[in-house]
Amino acid sequence: MEQNDRFVYSIFMHPHELPVYQQKDKILTALAENQVVVVESPTGSGKTTQLPIILHEAGYATNGLIGVTQPRRIATLSVSDFIARQLEVKVGGLVGYKMRFEDKTGVDTKIKIMTDGILLQEMKLDPYMSRYQVIMVDEAHERSLNIDFILGLLKQVLETRAEFKVIVSSATINAQVFSEYFGECPIVKIETQTYPVTLIYDPVIEAQGLEKPGGKPKEEPRGGNRNSGRKPESSSPLRYSDEALYDKILSIIQRSLSSRAEDEEGDILVFLPGEKTIKECAMRLYQSPMAEALHIVPLYARLGKDEQEKVFHPAPLGKSKVVIATNIAETSVTIDGITVVIDSGLAKLNYYNPRSFTASLIETPISKASCNQRKGRAGRTRPGTCYRLYPRKDFENRPLFTTEEIYRTDLSEVVLRMAELGISNFEEFDFISKPPKSGIAGAIDILNLLDALSEDRRLSKTGELMCAFPLLPRLSRMIVESMLRYPEVIHETLVAASFLSTMSPYVLPPGEELEARKAHHAFRDPMGDFVSYLRIYDAFIAAADKTRFCEHNYLDERTMREILRIREQLEIIVSDMGFPISRGGSLADYLCAVSRGLIQFVCARQERGLFRSLTAEKIQIHPGSVMFRENPDFIVAGEIVRTTRMYAMSVSPLSREILRRISPMVAERLSAISGGQAGRATSAVERRAKARGGEEKAAGRQAPRSFTDTIQLGGQIFDLVKGRGKKKMVLLPWERFTVARDNLDQGSAAAFKGLLAVIQQGGYSLLEGDKLETVIRIKDWLDLDRDLQREWPRSRNFEILDKGGNGGLDARNFGELVENLSHVFQVAKPKGKDKKLGFVSLYTDGEGVFWFRISKGFHTALNESIASLEALIDAADGVELAAEAKERIGDLYRKLSSFFE
């Protein structure tokens, strides 16, 4: 028997010993006497995998299906596979699963595991859930928008079907709120055996490199607390460089391994905020001296099923398993054998602005409840240890629970689904948490822009067609536009919608950024990303060896296959509606169809490098777009996201003619902006957006922020003076700033949002008028004492193209340019009497000539340097570069691009 088979077999040896069976009779009795039961338990109780089996054995599948919703695809796959193995059946028979564009159910299916989005899709065709006898909403504590909407709809079903049953399954996070929502329904608590966990606060601020074996911090008794390091100034996690974070993680892993007894077992679970940090941390571990002793397993949403399942397999003999995961390992996935948890205290959460129709993916501190969930992972099977990479005071000041998604996400899809179900009084729908009025109003504005609603808030004809697609409203509107007005580009529009429905397929492996960008540039098209997507898709379809194609072009194969699968499913929907799938129409028609759906992201150029939509301004094209170095009058974006600034993603240029074809009203407004005559808002959308903004400002005036003449940052006191407009500016003398910056964190800036800053040194100033948040974020880039003493090539032009006309590089000039890349972002003095310091930046004329120049603004330096670096990569295309040159270019590209995340 193979090792993995032995592992799977051992899991199912004694399923009835799981804690859920201790409460089996109580759960079934409560369900027999009530329509709704809340089951509360910590992770690992077996509720997710065993409750469906218990319900099936109790006869709840006699007259209908047992439905189980999951918030994530990874859980849908793993849960259905687990139950099928336990019952010794194949997935697709008695046990099946269904996700968007993937259905593994059949006529014999009785236990159906599905994503919550699928249940919402089914409820539009069957509002009373007549095919189901019981629905179990799993992971309800996550309070996603879909979960909250499902609970509201199920509440309506319960009023009309007395025999219908609902189980709300929640971790030990605020389960009482579900009971109250369903009329004080019973809560059945499942207790699980837990082992003591030693809690150690070990902030990243102390990490100065790998500690030697034996450098383990002093421990308190299990269950105790320890706070090492300096006290923070705010309740947010310390803002540190990625290198410091990885150094700290490696030092803890090293300590854990060196302090173990020879026969001691136990795996390590590291929580990080996203895919990029997980990959970089894994690389650091692979490159470390202890790599041979580790079995490193990443876990994040984009991984394929086979890769995700590796977290459940034991490490090879003689190795310790290290799982590096996002927050999906908090509650959605139970990994046995974990004895050490290393918690960064961070996660990435989406926040949506209903006034500007823009989203922000923010790396943010997790709640106390999430911190404790992570801690609990270390004590499931034996005593363990949890290292928190943030101070205890930071934990104590965190919110108890994560903000519910309904308060921080775009509600347009939910409002569209409500309209589809005949609900028109959107504001009065019985959500478990009432959404803000601004969120509903913003959703209505978007749907009106898309022509999805009639004046009485019912679906328009266009809206009815849009509802056929399991997509975001803007993406379904693209397809409907092609069906109704541009049928010759239906295929192309489906491809575009498929690309926008998934993660980006572009892969930038650490250390291979140069090769990756060169590979991606091969697909560039003057008409922007949406045409580049068509080129990538066609090349992928034509490739005989798709795995090799993706590896060669630095594309994620799983994402490309997902794009292909989505396009195929969308074609079926369109064909079933009676529209033939045509292709080969003009690019103008294609961009018209795409832009009609993305009308909220159609923008006009305000000034060089900055654009404005109907509701947002100061938008820049993201460096990941093929249009980054271009400056068209009008663009359409697949999304507008705020990270460090407002960025347009997936961008194509638009002409005035296309703009008029999309919408005369939008054309008029944006043409005025492009012509420098923005004037006052005239569209209904703009007026409502401004009105909502005015209400918020008025509310702010009722309770004005109290400013003092000083501010404390990083244990130092700094003066405040009047800055640009009505904003205050923090004076940061360099010597005191260097003392404070080791203690500075992102939360310090967030607590004083809107403050500006200026660094002062010897009569000179740096970053005057930039945001304090920006200054704090780049604090580790700054070394004025060193930089101001360094010479840099101030008046030198580097002509890197071979003048012989051979199309190659001038080796000498190219080599000298690459050697001088280390000067980029060096702080430098200007010539003459000017007292404003700036950053050495890389510039190019686009014809093979490069030079260095001082840019006083941080973002100007950043944008010019990364654009010039992209041009340098293009110039080197087809040339075999020395390893050192690749490393220098890659290091700088990685440093600059990190600021755009």
Automatic annotation (TrEMBL):
Region of interest: Disordered: 210-238
Example of a GO MF term: helicase activity
Which PROSITE patterns does the protein's record reference?
Answer: HELICASE_ATP_BIND_1 (PS51192), HELICASE_CTER (PS51194)
Q: Where is the composition biased (Basic and acidic residues)?
A: 213-223
Ranges of residues in domain Helicase ATP-binding: 28-191
- The residues forming a coiled coil are none
Q: Which Pfam families match?
A: DEAD, Helicase_C, OB_NTP_bind
Q: Where is the Helicase C-terminal domain?
A: 252-422
Q: Give a yes or no for keyword ATP-binding in this entry.
A: yes
Under the heading InterPro entries, the entry gives: DEAD-box_helicase_OB_fold, DEAD/DEAH_box_helicase_dom, Helicase-assoc_dom, Helicase_ATP-bd, Helicase_C-like, P-loop_NTPase
Which SMART domains does this UniProt record tie to the protein?
A: DEXDc, HA2, HELICc
- Keywords assigned by UniProt? ATP-binding, Helicase, Hydrolase, Nucleotide-binding
Q: Which PANTHER family match?
A: ATP-DEPENDENT RNA HELICASE (PTHR18934), ATP-DEPENDENT RNA HELICASE DHX37-RELATED (PTHR18934:SF99)
Q: What is this protein called?
A: RNA helicase
